[in-house]
Amino acid sequence: MDHPIVTVLIAMLGGAIRVSTPFMFVALGETLTEKSGRINLGLEGTLVLGAMVAYATSYLSGNPWLGVLAAGGAGVILGGLHGYICKLPKVNDIAVGIAFMSFGTGLAFFFGKPFIQPSAPHLDSIHLGDWTGNPALAQALEVNPLFFVGIGLAIAMAWALKNTKWGLIVRMAGDSAAAAKAMGVSVDLVRFLATAAGGFMAGIGGAFLSLYYPGIWNQGLSSGQGLMAVALVIFARWDPIRCIIAALLFGAAGAIGPSLQAIGITQGYYFFNAAPYILTLVIMILSAGSKGAAREAPGELSITK
User: Fold this and answer.
1) With contact defined as beta carbons under 8 Å apart, do 234 and 258 qualify?
2) Burial class of residue 263 in the structure, from the number of CB atoms within 10 Å of its CB (0-12 exposed, 13-18 middle, 19+ buried)
3) Residue 155: count of CB within 10 angstroms of its CB
4) Can you tell me the distance from the alpha carbon of 268 to that of 249, in angstroms, rounded to the nearest whole number?
5) Which of 95, 105, 109, 179 sits at 20 to 30 Å (Cα–Cα) from 50?
């Protein structure tokens, strides 16, 4: 029999992989959006709406991957609306984001009621741990393909932001709108496209929630993961690669409670389940006085002015 500590670590490994995936997609979407100089706090609503659209599409079509694409499409629509409204004069992107958070969640709850009970086809997982001969480790290493898609996306985004013309344009729009306009760049268009693309990624994160883990659709599905991902972006210093590490850290924190329960430790269960929220609070407090975070933040963000 495995030592209890080993059991907990294996459970946390599996939890980190599963729980981190939606964090990863939302954080990457918000990173791209903020790199262009805009904040989108509405990604919580996009995450929930994406989860509902994915589940409904998978149920109606019988194809969960169509659900993933539909969730991304819903995210593009919400992100595009957010980007369009925010380019209007005297509009505050933070206020618009909060409004879209409620709007996306409300749409999901209204149209998703018929899909709470039916069972939709789920995404399959890749079994990476069967060779170990350890059932617990094999289960922990059941990885959904979207996890690898997220890692590949982060690597591609990090490379593109540093090495391509489009990456330079996005960073220029986020660091100095005046400089971007002087170079003939349409700042509003860049931010619109970046916000829409960020919404697409957040929608896919929602699809993971409803079609893989926890693999259900109900009105309490997200639990604030979209908002926590915004804190994750600050923690990652607007770096896509660091977003992967930060998402895994958040995922492991979220797995502490279930991991301890698996070995019979139930005392303090609710406190350990609150670990991701406590971690978010700590990150926000530390980031508020961090000169490094302020230095690496895109100059056009409203939080830096």
Assistant:
1) no
2) middle
3) 13
4) 20
5) 95
Residues pairing with 142 in the sheet: 127
CA-CA-CA-CA torsion for 195, 212, 24, 223, nearest 10 degrees? 80
Q: Where are the alpha helices (DSSP H) in 113-186?
A: 135-140, 145-163, 165-175, 177-182
CA triplet 204, 210, 215: central angle to 5 degrees? Answer: 135
* 127, β-bridge pairs: 142
Distance CA 209, CA 50 (A): 9
φ and ψ at residue 127, rounded to 5 degrees? -90, 100
Q: What residue numbers bound the domain in which 226 lies?
A: 4-116+146-298
State the 10-residue block means of pLDDT for the chain, 305 residues long. Answer: 68 83 95 95 95 97 97 98 93 93 95 92 87 73 92 97 96 94 94 97 96 89 82 89 91 77 66 76 72 76 61
Half-sphere exposure of residue 58, counting CA atoms within 13 Å on the CB side?
31
CB 217 within 8 A of CB 210: yes
The domain total for the chain is: 1
Both tokens of 208, joined, read 């993971």
Question: Taking the model in full, what pTM does it have?
Answer: 0.91
239 lies in a domain?
Answer: yes
Residue 206's CATH number: 1.10.3470
**Sign of the alpha-carbon torsion through 83, 194, 300, 38:** positive
